[in-house]
Design goal:
disordered N terminus; alpha/beta; lipoprotein; single chain; Rossmann fold
Length: 294
C-alpha cells in the first residue's frame, strides 16, 4: 500500500507552483527544495534527511534519498516510533471567506502532492479521517500522535500527520489525513481521497445529528469517490456520554447520547469494517482505533 507509485519508464506527475517557483519533479530535489525554506514546510524545524532509514523490501529499490520527519522527542508509546506532523493550514473562523477558497484549494493540492511525494518510497497505509465539523477528528489525531490534547478548537482545512507502526516485522508509515467537515469544503475535501487505504468516519456520541450524517452524508461521499475502500465508524467524545450537562442539553431537544449499540447496528447496516469508540481527552481506547487501521 502506498500513496503513489511511479512505474518504471513512466513520466512523473507535474506538480503545481507554490509561492512562485515550480516544485522540482524529482523527489530528491523536492526534499532539498523543501529543506531550503519552502513556505509549505518552513515552519517545521524537525526536518531531517535520512537516506539510511529502514524501509520495506519494495522501498529499498528506490534510488533517491528519503525525507524523514521527526518530533524533537520520540513518543513514549512503543507502537508509535515517530510522530511527525508534516504540514497544516487552518482558518481563523468556522465559516471561510469564499473569496479565498480557491487559494486554499490550490495550496492544499500542493500540500497533498508534496506529502505524497515525500512518503512515496516508504511502505505506507493512507488513512483519511472524515466526519462533521467539531466532532473531535483533529483532537483524535493530535492526541494519538503527540499524547497532547488541544486546548482550543480551530476548524481544520487540511492537516497531515504520520506515525511509524510495525505490522508483523515490517515498518509502515501510517499517513493520517485530517479533513474539513464543514459544507464549505465539500469540493476541497475530496482532494485528499485518492489512493486511500482506509477511512475513519467519525461522529460524536454527544451529537445525534453527526451520527445520522454518517449514513446520510459521509458513507455516500466516500463510496462515491473511493468505491470498495474499507471504512471504520468511530464514535468520539465518549467521556462526555454520561456528563450531566450534556445529557441535560440533549434532553431539552428530546434527544439522548448515541449508545454503543446504535453504533454497532449502523456499522452492520452500512457494511463497515467495525464500529469503535474512544476519547481523545482521556485516551480511552484511542490506540485501539488505530490498531484496527493497521
Amino acid at each position: 500500500m502506498s500513496f503513489a507509485r511511479w512505474p518504471t519508464g513512466s513520466s512523473r506527475p507535474h506538480l503545481p507552483h507554490v509561492d512562485g517557483p515550480l516544485l522540482p519533479r524529482k523527489p530528491a530535489l523536492l526534499c532539498s527544495w523543501l529543506l531550503k525554506g519552502s513556505s509549505v514546510l518552513k515552519s517545521s524545524p524537525c526536518l531531517k534527511l535520512d537516506p539510511h532509514h529502514p524501509t520495506s523490501k519494495r522501498a529499498r529499490a528506490a534510488t533517491f534519498g528519503l525525507l524523514r520527519l521527526r518530533l524533537p522527542s520520540p513518543s513514549p508509546s512503543p507502537s508509535r516510533l515517530t510522530s511527525p506532523r508534516l504540514a497544516s493550514t487552518r482558518l481563523d473562523s468556522t465559516r471561510p471567506d469564499r473569496s479565498s477558497l480557491a487559494s486554499h484549494r490550490f495550496f492544499t493540492l500542493c500540500l497533498l502532492r508534496s506529502a505524497t511525494t515525500i512518503m512515496a518510497v516508504v511502505a505506507t497505509i493512507k488513512c483519511v479521517v472524515v466526519g462533521d465539523g467539531a466532532v473531535g477528528k483533529t483532537c483524535l489525531l493530535i492526541s494519538y500522535t503527540t499524547n497532547k490534547f488541544p486546548s482550543e478548537y480551530v476548524p481544520t482545512v487540511f492537516d497531515n500527520y504520520a506515525v511509524t507502526v510495525m505490522i508483523g516485522d515490517e515498518p509502515y508509515t501510517l499517513g493520517l489525513f485530517d479533513t474539513a467537515g464543514q459544507e464549505d469544503y465539500d469540493r476541497l475535501r475530496p482532494l485528499s481521497y485518492p489512493q486511500t487505504d482506509v477511512f475513519l468516519v467519525c461522529f460524536s456520541v454527544t451529537s445525534p445529528a453527526s451520527f445520522e450524517n454518517v449514513r446520510e452524508k459521509w458513507f455516500p461521499e466516500v463510496h462515491h469517490h473511493c468505491p470498495g475502500v474499507p471504512c471504520l465508524i468511530v464514535g468520539t467524545q465518549v467521556d462526555l456520554r454520561d456528563d450531566p450537562s450534556v445529557k441535560e442539553k440533549l434532553m431539552k431537544q428530546k434527544m439522548t447520547p448515541v449508545r454503543r449499540e446504535d453504533g454497532e447496528r449502523m456499522a452492520k447496516e452500512l457494511h463497515a469494517v467495525k464500529y469503535v469508540e474512544c476519547s481523545a481527552l482521556t485516551q480511552f481506547k484511542l490506540k485501539d482505533v488505530f490498531d484496527e487501521v493497521g
